[in-house]
Amino acid sequence: MTSPLSDEPDNAVVSRILSRRRLLALGGAGAVALTAGAGTAAQAASRDAVAGSGTAAAARAAALASGTCMQLTAEQIEGPYYIDYELFRKDVVEDRTGVPLLLVLRAVDATTCRPIRNSAIEIWHCDASGVYSGYTQTGNGGGGAPPTMTPGSPPPGGGGGHATPTDDLTWLRGIQMTDHEGFVTFRTVFPGWYTGRAVHVHTKVHTGGSRTSAGYTGGQTCHTGQFYFTEAAVQATAGIAPYSANTVSRVPLDEDGIYPGTGTAGGLLSLAYSPRHVEDGVVGHITMAVDPAATNDGEGMPGGPAPAASSGA
Which range, of 189-203, 215-229, 238-252, 297-311, averages the lowest pLDDT? Predict the structure, then answer.
């Protein structure tokens, strides 16, 4: 059903929260206002350009044209940095700087190929320096030695374990209700990287419930996955600020131990950007084919028990 709440609480207000209840009380705060630290005027203008309605419409059209009948999208681990704030908003940037990224995401029923309407798609990811909100004292990847990962094999951990949050920050986290065609759109920044992982964005698809004053209520998490970027796109961003200041060794996509190597079905985004001017912004889109009646909470790899906890997800 249509949500009675405003989609866009003021990001300057919600940059710190102590509880979901406090956050949801801000639901009527009005349109997004980026904080003073959100970057230069040029960066703001670039973000506006890549998030324009025409760009979003083009990505939606490309997603629709690519067809919706496909194999089931791969389930992947939730990782240790998930926090169920259920922060309903399209713009998740807050005060983070980086290459503007417009994510156009769609959920369809893998059996009927029909769009999954009035459900919720959630994302969370690290900033350009490889740090997650809620875990800024943990650093980029949890510190310590990176986990050993072998392409195509189960990851060495991170399934059911959750790291203890170190702060109440909320940047680069958000959730949106799908429209009548199964779409949501997020305005964010291109992620950086951290110890042991390729560049990625986490996602969950929630079905069977509804948005209320208490958040997304009822139903289940039918899909937990991750989105990935082509190596060319990551290399294009790696040499420019603020990504160039990230000194952690980056894992290429084909060496990541969690990406299943199956392209779109494994979470690989379709991207549009100018290789010479990636700083102007990147548009990524993907259609997720899921089982809306399933429960896939990301507590372990599909078809097996949850692995031991690790910081490398």
Answer: 297-311
The pTM (predicted TM-score) of the whole model is: 0.79
Give yes or no for a contact between 203 and 120, defined as CB atoms under 8 angstroms apart. no
Secondary structure of residue 270 in the 3-state scheme = strand
Closest CA to 311 of 225, 204, 227, 197: 197
Q: Is the dihedral of CA 96, 98, 100, 101 positive or negative?
A: negative
The model's pLDDT over 235-257, given as tens digits with 9 standing for 90+, comes to: 999 999 999 999 999 999 999 99
User: What sign results for the dihedral spanned by CA atoms 235, 238, 241, 242?
Assistant: positive
Average pLDDT, the chain: 78
**HSE, side-chain direction, 13 A CA sphere, residue 228:** 26
User: Residue 46's closest CA among 200, 270, 274?
Assistant: 274
- Measured in residues, the chain has a length of 313
- Whether 11 contacts 91, CB under 8 Å: yes
Tokens for 141, please give them: 């990847």
Query: Which tens digit of pLDDT belongs to each residue from 86-121?
Result: 899 999 999 999 999 999 999 999 999 899 999 999
pLDDT at 38 over 70: no
CA–CA separation, 193 and 136 (whole Å): 14
Q: How many helices (H) and strands (E) does the chain have?
A: 4, 8
| Token couple for 233 | 């796109």
Question: Could you tell me if 267 and 198 are in contact, meaning their C-beta atoms sit under 8 angstroms apart?
Answer: no
Other CB atoms within 10 A of residue 178 CB: 22
Residue 289 confidence (pLDDT): 95
Alpha helices (H) in the chain, listed in sequence order: 20-24, 41-50, 53-65, 231-238
Structural tokens at position 117: 């309407």
The answer to whether 85 and 174 are in contact (CB under 8 A) is no
The number of beta carbons lying within 10 Å of the beta carbon of residue 213 is 12
